Amino acid sequence: MKRSRIWSWVTFALGAAYFFIPLIATVEFSLRMRRGEYSLDAYRVVLADPRFQQTFLYSTVVAVFTILIGVLLVVPTAYWIRLRMPRIRPVVEFITLLPLIIPAIVIVFGYIRMYGSSSPLPFLATNRGADALLMIGYATLALPYMYRAVDTGLRTIDVRTLTEAAQIHGAGWTTIIARIILPNVLIAVLSGAFLTFAIVIGEFTMASLLNRPAFGPYLQNIGANRAYEPAALAVIAFAITWGCMSVIQVLSRFAPKSANNTN
Amino acid sequence: MSETFLSIQGVRKAFGATTVVKDFILDVARGEFVSFLGPSGCGKTTMLRMVAGFEEPSAGSIMIGGRDVTNLKPNQRNIGMVFQAYALFPNLTVAQNIAFGLKVAGVSRAESDERVREMLAIIKLEGFEGRYPYQLSGGQQQRVALARALAPRPKLLLLDEPLSALDAKVRVSLREEIRLIQKKLDITTIFVTHDQEEALSMSDRIVVMYDGRAEQVGTPFDIYNRPATRFVANFVGTLNVLDGTVKDPARAVVHVDGREITLRNGALNGTRAGDALSLALRPEAIVLGRQEGRDSSLVGEIADVSFLGSVIRVKVGVGKSAVSLDTFNNPASPPPVIGEKTEISFSSGDLLVLH
After folding, report:
1. Which of A155, A169, A190, A254 to mutate to test binding with chain B, by most B CBs within 10 Å of its CB?
2. Which residues form a coiled coil (chain A) (predicted)?
């Protein structure tokens, strides 16, 4: 075996060990709830906890609405920028990356100041308002992933020509976006959607500071008060994230293929 | 010309300080096939895009079927268009692509299915309705694009260099097919191309464009044989240019390489004796040696010989100019030899004076 190949494998093994050893340790620890033998007791306790079900359901619903907000905001924006304003693309890309730079705690404190019960837009005066604000906040947090996923999808199709082809055949903007653009970037949109889902399910800062009954604060609360259950929850959260990633991989096989045969 | 269907009047288009189409005027008859021919950047595609509604003219008007469409959106014009890059919708099957315009127009399912079948028969792709664009060759994709454009029975068909992405053999067969379909459906068509052979072989009339202007509008025969400007003469076909001097404008006599040649009456209108001028001659109008019926000749030396199979292209140096001519390959006689002295003859009536 070549020397460089050996080093490649050594690097890979070190990386895998760094990633898998804590994970295996967590799984192993989560199975130790019963003394002297491995069991799934910790998982049973967690899954039977009504707060787990409530918070997980709440976060799932919030994630679905966040994805909807993200799609409605990002798809037309990214499409219009590619079609009509390609010159401002770098500026928009920079703006979409800001949530990676600005900590969530800064954003949420901004929200609390801006949309408190005494403000002209009192989102935080009601639970529904706070839920809406949480979804908007999550859509902001997911913006870098959603925008990049959609923009990459749009890059694979000839947006301008397809738009013109649809226009000349009588289609208006709604038809063009719904029947031509969205189906052709659907896989990219779904990739963004699953990334958004993974972010929303585990998010703590915004949900906690807006005092919403989400899965992230529940994870934190369990982690602070129990021994084995947090490890089981961590493994469940990992499984959800990995599940989302796997779905993205599977879906990418169904992406509409471009047709560039000259002959 | 029969009834005007498409009327373009004084159209101008400027992008900032750059004017890309200048005072374009054209009337197209119903059922006519007109080509916009010109080099890249001459404004032909911009003009087509203004007819389609993708660009708004800076001045002038466009009428289709007597209706002013200058300010209408593309989806309000009832036009079919085929794009250079096919532009088939990748997520739709062949049948769904063809039916797209019909569905948008709210045509019933039964009628739409019937129209799709009819179109598939016209483009000879029956049995391909369930395939996706990526499963088709370039030629097949472009035929589907044509069917999609024709399915809603548009009033006008626009073809934006539809053959340029295809290989040579498919181009020739598809251009014949497009012309046949166009004649069969009697649909008024504007075809944009930079390929003179396509324009000459397909069109009822050609608009040769240069620098945003229509340099000449005419039948392929007129454009090729009677080019109105130096640009048209150079751009369409191969052209030999000879330098001459006006000797007697009244009798249309010029001097070329020391020989006197009499041109068609009136060819030298507006010139004076001693003026320098350029004369153009197509390669097929020249023969090697003397030939009966050709009243003019020049002496030169064989400069180059290219064997092209059925044809031999010969370059003859005449004074400071080089003249190209084509002769048929004759297995019984060897091709001319480089360096050989020779005479070339032609009819003075075939000489064009370039202005």
Report:
1. A169
2. none
Nearest neighbour of B83 by CB, restricted to A161, A172, A180: A161
- B172 CB within 8 Å of a chain A CB: no
Q: Do B134 and A259 touch (CB under 8 A)?
A: yes
Using alpha carbons only, give the angle B342, B344, B349 rounded to the nearest 5 degrees. Answer: 170
Q: Average pLDDT, stretch A59-76?
A: 94
Is the Cβ of B99 closer than 8 Å to some Cβ of chain A?
A: no
Q: Mean pLDDT check: name the lowest of A197-201, A259-263, B194-198.
A: A259-263
Nearest Cα of chain A lies from the Cα of B43 at a distance, in angstroms, of: 19
Chain A interface disruption, residue of B92, B98, B100, most A CBs within 10 A: B100
**What's the CATH number where B246 sits?**
2.40.50.100
Binding-face residues of B in 106-145 toward A, CB within 8 A: 132-134, 136-139, 141
* Same domain flag for B143 and B97: yes
Tell me the nearest-neighbour CA distance from B4 into chain A, angstroms. Answer: 22
Q: Which of B235, B260, B295 is the last residue of a domain?
A: B235
| Long-range residue pairs from A24-33, CB within 8 A, at least 24 positions apart, any chain | A26/A231, A26/A234, A26/A235, A27/A231, A27/A235, A29/A228, A29/A231, A30/A228, A30/A231, A30/A232, A30/A234, A30/A235, A32/A228, A33/A228
pLDDT of res. A120: 87
As a whole number of angstroms, the distance between CA B107 and CA B113 comes to 10
Band of pLDDT at residue A116, cut at 50, 70 and 90 = confident
> How many domains is chain B built from?
2
Whether residue B281 sits in one domain with residue B152: no
ipTM for this prediction: 0.80
Rounded Cα distance between B295 and A95, Å, is: 77
Question: What pLDDT does A258 receive?
Answer: 55
What is the reported pLDDT for A57?
Answer: 94
Residues B190 and B332 grouped into a single domain: no
pTM metric for this prediction: 0.79
Q: Do B59 and B183 fall into the same domain?
A: yes
Which of B235, B269, B297 is the endpoint of a domain?
B235
CATH code for the domain of B129? 3.40.50.300
Closest residue in A to B133 (Cα–Cα): A259
What topology is assigned to A49-252 in CATH?
MetI-like fold (1.10.3720)
Identify whether residues B197 and B337 lie together within a single domain.
Answer: no
